[in-house]
Amino acid sequence: MQEKKNKAAILKRLARLEGQLRGITKMVETDRYCVDVLMQTAAVRSALRAVERLIIADHADHCMEKAILSGDPDEQRAKFGELVALLERARD
Q: I want to staple 75 with a disulfide (CB 3.0 to 4.6 A). Which of 7, 9, 27, 67 is the partner?
């Protein structure tokens, strides 16, 4: 299978998210102002949604395309169902 085009961007964003989470942990440990902590958690949620969008795009570009090209209706339905479930979860 071909490497997913967004892999490097996903890994870079996840590394940044790790740093943000460590920062939030330190903020809580040092009793930083609640609103400041909440602003950082909102930034993490937003960044995580961006990662989810990249992963969904890769799923559509690779897994969905493979199912479409296979001509197998059962595989196509399964991959489409996975995509719908991913989109529903990403909305929450």
A: 67
